[in-house]
Amino acid sequence: MNIHEHQAKEILKGYGAPVAKGAAVTDLSQAEAAVDSLPGPVWVVKSQIHAGGRGKGKFKELGQDAKGGVRVSFSRDEALENIREMFGKTLVTAQTGEGGKQVQRLYVEDGADIDRELYLSILVDRAVGKTAFVVSTEGGMDIETVAHDTPEKITTQPIDASNGCTEADAAKLADALKLEGSAREQGMKLFQTLYKAFVEKDMSLLEINPLIVTKKNEVQVLDAKVSFDGNALFRHDDIAAYRDESEEDAKEIEASKYDLAYVALDGDIGCMVNGAGLAMATMDIIKLYGAEPANFLDVGGGATKEKVTAAFKIITSDPNVKGILVNIFGGIMRCDVIAEGVVAAVKEVGLKVPLVVRLEGTKVEEGKKIINESGLNVIAADDLDDAAQKIVKAVKG
C-alpha cells in the first residue's frame, strides 16, 4: 500500500526524524490557513499523488509552458496562487502515464536552505536476502539515471536483521554520503531511526529523495515516499487509515475485497489465470503474438465459484477489454470450479467480446463439459500457445 508524502513525513516525524513544518490541503477552503501556519519567507507547494516525477510533471489543463507539480513560492500571495492553480488539475508525470492523476490534495511546506541533495532508500534486497540501505551523493535525481550513468556513486549497505542498523553500519553510510561534523552526527542517528521505522511499520520501501544537508550543516528529510507490505496491514490500523482509494484503480479495489491478485494494465486482452508464474507466462505469450494484456489476474489456488465470478466481472468491467483469455492449470485449483464461475459470470453480466478458455489438470473433463454444455460462445484451446494465438486472432479480427 502506498501513502502520500505528507503522511509519510507524519510517520517519520513521530520517530524523531528531522522534517520541515508543513500543512496538508484537501479543500481549497484550507489554503489560507495552511499558508499562514508557516513562517515563510519561502513556501513550497507540492502535489500529492502516488507517482514520482512531480516536479517535472505538467498539468493537462495548463499547457506545456506551465510550472510543474512542485512549486517554490516566495510570498504568501504566490503560494495561494499556486495552490488555487494546481488543486483539482490533472498532473502528468513519467510515472502516471498519459492519463495523469488528478491532484486532490496538496502539501504546503516550509522552505529549506539547501546546500547538498543526497539520496537514501531502504528496501528488501532479494539478491542478498536482507534489508538494505541504498545511498548516493546524487540526490534529487532519478536513481535509475544515476545507476545507469554513474553506478559507482551508489552504495548498497545490507543490514543484519539480528543486530539492526548498528553504529558501524551508520558510519559506513555517513562515509558514503560524505557527511561531516554535525551533519554526520545527525545522519548516523537518522539512519538508525529510519531503519527502526521501516521494520516496526512493515514497510516495503522507504525512499528519501532528496535527503538534504542545509547550509547550517544539518540533515533534513525533504521528500519521503513510503510503501507498506499489504500482508502486514492487519497489524497496523493506523497505517491502513492512510489509504487513499481515489489514487487506486477501482477494479483493483474491488479485487482486493475478494482476495484476488489483480493489476490493471494498458492492453485489450483480459486474462484470468491461476498462479502468478502462469499469469506472467500468459501475458508474455500474448505480447509474443503481437497483442497487449489488459491485466494481471491470479485467482489463486483455492478459488471458489464466487471468487471466479467476481474476477470475471472485474475483467469485463474494463472498457478497454476486447477479448478474454481464461488459462487454468488445475492442481489445487479444480477446472470444474473455474468453469462454473465463468458460466455463472457470463450469464449474469453477458459476453460481448471473444472468450478463449484453456483448461488442463484436475477435473479438466468435468470443466470442459460444463463449458461445452453451457451454450456459451466460447473458443476452446488445447494448450497455452494455441490459446494465445486464438484470442489474439479473435481480437484483431
Textual characterization of the structure:
It is a single chain. By secondary structure, this protein is α+β, with helices and mostly antiparallel strands. The chain has 3 domains: 21-110, ATP-grasp fold, A domain (Dna Ligase, domain 1); 114-240, D-amino Acid Aminotransferase, Chain A, domain 1 (2-Layer Sandwich); 249-396, Rossmann fold, CATH 3.40.50. The protein is built from 13 helices and 19 strands. Strands 8, 9, 10, 11, 12 and 13 form a 6-stranded antiparallel sheet that branches. It has a 4-stranded antiparallel sheet with strand order 1-7-2-4. The longest helix has 20 residues, at 181-200. The model has no long low-confidence stretch (mean pLDDT 91).
Poorly predicted tracts of residues: none
Q: Give the biggest sheet.
A: 6 strands, antiparallel
Number of strands: 19
Shape: elongated
CATH class (first level) name of the largest domain: Alpha Beta
Report how far apart the termini are.
39 Å
Overall tally of structural domains: 3
CATH architecture label name of the largest domain: 3-Layer(aba) Sandwich
Q: Please give the share of residues in helix.
A: 25-40%
Rg on CA atoms, Å = 25 Å
- Using the coordinates shown, work out and report the CATH topology of the largest domain: Rossmann fold
Query: In CATH, what is the homologous superfamily of the largest domain?
Result: Succinyl-CoA synthetase domains
Given the structure, what is the number of helices?
Answer: 13
| Strand composition percent | 15-25%
Average pLDDT figure: 91
Structural class: alpha+beta
